[in-house]
Prior knowledge:
Layout: E1 17-19, H1 21-27, E2 34-38, H2 50-63, E3 68-73, H3 78-90, E4 93-98, H4 109-115, E5 119-122, H5 128-144, E6 149-151, H6 163-175, E7 181-186, H7 190-199, E8 204-208, H8 215-229, H9 266-279, H10 288-300, E9 310-314, H11 318-323, H12 325-328
Parallel strand pairs: 2-9, 3-4, 3-6, 4-5, 7-8, 7-9
Antiparallel strand pairs: 1-2
Helix pairs in contact: 1-9, 2-3, 2-6, 3-4, 6-7, 7-8, 9-10
The chain binds pyridoxal-5'-phosphate (PLP).
Amino acid sequence: MPSAPPRVPLGTWPTPVEAAPRLATHLGLEPDDLVLKRDDLSGLGGGGNKVRKLERTVGRALAEGADVLVTTGAAQSNHARATAAAARRTGLGCVLVLVGGPPARPAGNLVLDELLGAEVEWAGDVDADGLDGAADAVVERLRDEGRRPSRVPYGGSDALGVLGYVTAADELRVQVPDARHVVVAVGSGGTMAGLVVVLGAARVLGVDVGAVPDPQDRVLRLVRGVAAASPELLPAGATGAAADLVAADLRLPRDEVGDGYGLPTPASTAALRAAALTEGVVLDPVYTAKALAGLASAVRRGEVRPGERTVLLHTGGLPGLFGHRSTTGV
Ligand SMILES: Cc1ncc(COP(=O)(O)O)c(C=O)c1O
């Protein structure tokens, strides 16, 4: 029987849920329809969704006897910053392999990466394979130096990391039992995958932010992967990993990406402002604001209707607001 390594506690659970009546009305929903699930308040190192996955992937690293974490991401990666914080919390070293080159003046997540003592390796202007290759080279270099590196997957999303969002979905089932739609930004796909495993594909509306070329296939692979690797850890009634699930069953619109990953759009900037002005809630410009923009367009096209309980998962990313400032118009 396969079994997952022990989870290492890193966050503050359960994260709260909050009513958002003014934002609901702004979107054209009934005031009681909309609930925010505040995974931005998960605690460690600035919080966000990555903490849940790291409880699993760092658990594996510790079980393997690792002494340093290695992960990859964009320059403003929230996952990289959260990994740096998890490394500090567990006494491990951390090397972040990031796309691009050193900026003249670090901002946003890069400031926190530095504060958290992560070693940053700049991979240059590379694609996904190039970034992976750069991280492989770092792992090799660390081994040559006598270190024991553990790779944390891109975005924290592999069959083990997804278990963090299986747990989150189970938490949400208790907090908002009548949720008809759960809306979430989709980057590497693990957050949506965990939600789908527990809540089923029909209740999860993923909004692609353009981080990967094939989000539907990735989410599907992760859903299948977590069900195969850790069947004993799936909660009772988790129906979303049915064998006949196909990519087309996933609700995953791609029309909020705009000019690309990491770039705000007029709709995401409007959403960022709307959340701030209606509820005093600060989103980030390139994940959660795109998720809210995706919810707004789902309401406009009648996919989400007044009277249907809707959860917007706030996955964090606040430091990115200060890393992307020049392009938000804020
Ligand atoms: C703030 C924020 N929200 C959402 C996501 C998307 O999560 P996932 O990579 O699990 O799809 C990320 C990471 O990419 C993120 O940093």
